[in-house]
## 1
Amino acid sequence: MEYKIAVCDDCVSDADYLEMLVMRWAEKVRGQVRILKFNSARTLLFHYEEEKDFDILLLDIEMDGQNGVELAKEIRRNNDVVQIVFITGFPDYMDQGYEVDALHYLLKPVCEEKLYDVLGRAAARLKKTERCLKVTFDRQTDLVPFDRIQYIEARKQFVEIHTESQIYRMKVSLGEMENSLDQRFFRCQRSFLVNLCFVVRIKNSFVILGNGEEIPIGRGKAKEIARAVIEFF
């Protein structure tokens, strides 16, 4: 797995030092990392608006303008998956970490072994969290948890990802999309993938979802879908 990691620190030397340690950790665990460095909360948030697929955030707390805790609160509004680690020269902010489910606090100067331990814990947490679909469209990236996707429909060169509250679009083929998903998604018709978790009734020519929506299925697919539902659950 490749981990996308943000380092946000207004001290260039501290940010460079963290980057070096993260690269060493990746070599040690034979992993892959992509590191992006930011010198302020504002620049990170600006980038985050278009790319929300960060796995780990290493945030300095004492920065000019918005501090690391305030930055974490903004990101936590719509992202429960990303692992947040605070870097600080003072322990005064530790109580506030509970508000954003921070994984850990590391005191400056950062100890190499302690950082390795925290990154290992972050990686373990990420493996246990709900899988998400990375949806990129119109220069914006969203992470959509699998368990919120009801069905996916192919529309010419795009697909539409339907959740209970929103529809996302992505320029990709349905076949490519299918390869990014797990066994809960069933190709019920040439243009549709349905999440078996939302199927409440199966008819000869369509399935009914929990919200009452009807999704068409191919000829002879009813028994196949029924079997898939039984095997999945």
Note: The chain is about 30% helix and 35% strand.
## 2
Amino acid sequence: MAGRPLLVGNEVAEALVRYAVLLAKVHSADHVVVRAVGRDGDEVEANFLLNPGIMLVADSTTSKLPEPDNADALQYLHARMQHYADYSMPDLETYHLA
């Protein structure tokens, strides 16, 4: 279901946004699965379709819940971003995500 808040952790949220920006710049798409904590506190698998037409929002939280383990997702995201290393990425300060 689109539009529901999920806790994914800072590093994976930043990587998802950066990868989404990169995919938009190269007019491409991808499917990424990350572990998240839903509103009810249960751990879930979140499926993200990243493409030039999506609206992806990363918000901050004061939650004390532990971040889900997303080592595999981060490895995938970083590998895919490296694949597009020739494209320049925007500075995250521009988007206030740092």
Note: The beta strands are 30-37, 43-50.
